[in-house]
Amino acid sequence: MRFPVVFLFAALLAACGAADPEAPPPPPETSAAPVSAAPASVAAPPPSSPADHGAALYAKLCALCHGTDREGYAADNAPSLKSSTFLETATEAFLRDAIVFGRPGTAMAGYGRQVGGPLRPNDVAALVAFLRRDAPPPVALPPESMAGNVANGKVIYDRECASCHGTQTQRGTAVHLANIQLLASAPPGFLRYALVHGRPGTKMEPWGGKLDARAQDDVLAYLRSLAMPVPTAPSGPPPVPPWGPIVINPKGKAPTFDLREGRYASVDQVGKALQAGRKMIIVDARAPSDWLKMHITGSLPLPYYQLDLVDRLPNDGTTVIAYCACPHHASGVVVDELRKRGFKNAYVLDEGVYAWQQKGFPVVAAEGFEKFPSPPHDHHGHDHHGHKH
Ligand code: HEC
Ligand code: HEC
Fold it and tell me: Which residues line ligand 1 (CB under 6 A)?
């Protein structure tokens, strides 16, 4: 199962590359330079390297969750992107898949243009170059042993791993290992290397001395048994439709919320206000690739990295709710911008969109998209008090 899927992805990526050749980012625009400036060849800054371009993209798009120095955990569950063992095994293809397709059902959106995200192939390549700059060379991973007892592996997994990594239906605080995209794109040996050597500097300990080779085989066989073929990616970028009506229930009364820290409105309160026909605007702060798959009915895509879209919202006191999946970070960026611009009633949906979906409040997919199935539940029920963004 695993190889055809990986192959399919490689083929898809190759096809996309051909349609939109990976070229270094264009040098900065010089034509608009003031006439008095020195000749363009002298005045123009040297074209930045792909890794520099990647660093700028990282600061704009990724740091809010993965941290300014790639250390992880600026937002819930977002792993380190700089641990030695991660970089030793995260090949360019693995990083590219994670960035382009994301991890469906988690806060990691797909950033590739082919799924509705903002990045062209050369941007993705630049991010990969940035993440791999100064990285230790990839280690040669042994071919994955196909031995292993799935049933026994499940017993070990439930006992040793599920408390952090969750199960197929419930998530924990660490990377969701049952994720369809992770399992499809992890190269052979990637999971074992992490299991045996851990992820230094994080909560992932080395298990090499704690689980013998047989138990490792079993647990990995169990994880592999959860892999599923990934749906074929569309061949071209899906169109993100123009905004529909901006205000929901324009004739309704304004909602009132019992806010936490003057900023966070709970899913229950917002859901009930919507059901009661209250007037509000709901904006989705995630990458539009996620909005296409599933969003709050009536919400408008307003990604955290495209804040000029705020210009299009009426600044007349109408309540604005921003949400994301992290569950506060991207929506927090949007609410900060709204408040900076004088929007009086702009709030963050406290628990995020997955909690909204799990509580049965209305969600839809964009036309032509299949609604994404309910993601794994957050069984920790940990509240996010104290997490601003
Ligand atoms: C809204 C928060 C958020 C943003 C923004 C975000 N990520 Fe992630 N990322 C996550 C989470 C959460 C995961 C782990 C998925 C899970 O929960 O299992 C992840 C996983 C990853 C992984 C896989 C790591 C592994 O160990 O398997 C890579 C690579 C990655 N992100 C890179 C990026 C890059 C590059 C960007 C910017 C283009 C980015 N992420 C933006 C939240 C985010
Ligand atoms: C105490 C919590 C904890 C336990 C228990 C734990 N892990 Fe982890 N694991 C983590 C964290 C946190 C990460 C991500 C670290 C990072 O930021 O890079 C991780 C990462 C991993 C990764 C790499 C995933 C990726 O995409 O990079 C694998 C594979 C893994 N763990 C397997 C296991 C297995 C199998 C077990 C049980 C034998 C286990 N872990 C037990 C916390 C834990």
Answer: 61-62, 64-66, 75, 77-79, 81, 86, 95, 98-99, 103, 106-108, 111, 127, 175-176, 179, 182, 326, 329-330
In a mutational test of the pocket of ligand 1, which residue from 57, 61, 66 has the highest number of ligand atoms less than 8 Å from its CB? 66
Type of residue at 288? P
Residue 29 CA, ligand 1 centroid: distance in Å: 31
Residue 258 lies in a domain: no
State which residues form the domain around 371. 264-375
The stretch 151-170 carries a mean pLDDT of: 96
CA distance 139 to 87: 9
3-state helix vs strand vs coil in the chain, percent to 5 = 40, 5, 55
Q: For the domain that residue 87 is a member of, what is the CATH number?
A: 1.10.760.10
pLDDT digits (tens, 9 = 90+) for 349-359: 999 999 999 99
DSSP, residue by residue, 316-334: SS--EEEE-SSSSHHHHHH
- Residues 98 and 348: their CA atoms lie apart, in Å, by 27
Number of domains comprising the chain:
2
Report whether pLDDT(8) > 50.
no
At 312, which CATH number?
3.40.250.10
What is the model's pTM?
0.86
Asked whether residue 37 is domain-assigned, the answer is no
